C-alpha cells in the first residue's frame, strides 16, 4: 500500500481547501505507482507540483528533498513540467539534483 500523505495546514489556507490539497498529493502517489488505474507519470508530476503550490507542506518538503520515494519517471516528468513553466533549464532525467530543487523554489516562490 502506498503511503497516505497528510498536509499540515498552511497559513492562509481555508479549512475547506485542505482536503483538496491532501487529495491532490494522494492522487499523485496513486498515479506514480499505478494503483487503482494505469501509471500516469505526467499527471502525477502535475499533481505533485499543484499540491505543493496549493500549500501542501509535505509535498513542498519532498520537492526540496531527494524525491527518492517517487519513481524515476515521475522525477523526470517533474523536471519536464518545471521546464514547461519556465522554472527549470537543466537536463531532463531522473536525477533530483540541486538544479531541480532551485527550480522548485523559484516556481513555488512565484505562487505567493
Separation of termini? Answer: 34 Å
**Structural class of the secondary elements?**
mainly alpha
* Count, helices: 5
Q: What coarse outline follows from CA principal-axis ratios? A: globular
Q: What's the average pLDDT?
A: 86
**How much of the residues is beta strand, in percent?**
under 5%
Low-confidence stretches: 1-10
User: Which value, in Å, is the CA radius of gyration?
Assistant: 13 Å
Short précis:
With about 110 residues, this protein is mainly α. It has 5 helices and no strands. Helix 1 runs antiparallel to helix 2 and helix 2 packs across helix 3.
Write the layout of secondary structure elements.
Layout lengths: L17 H16 L7 H13 L3 H8 L7 H13 L13 H13 L2
Helix pairs in contact: 1-2, 2-3, 2-4
Descriptive terms for the model:
112 residues; mainly alpha; globular
Describe this protein's structure.
The chain is mainly alpha-helical and 112 residues long. It has one domain. It has five helices and no strands. The chain has helices at 18-33, 41-53, 57-64, 72-84, 98-110. Helix 1 (18-33) runs antiparallel to helix 2. The longest helix has 16 residues, at 18-33. Residues 1-10 have low confidence and may be disordered.
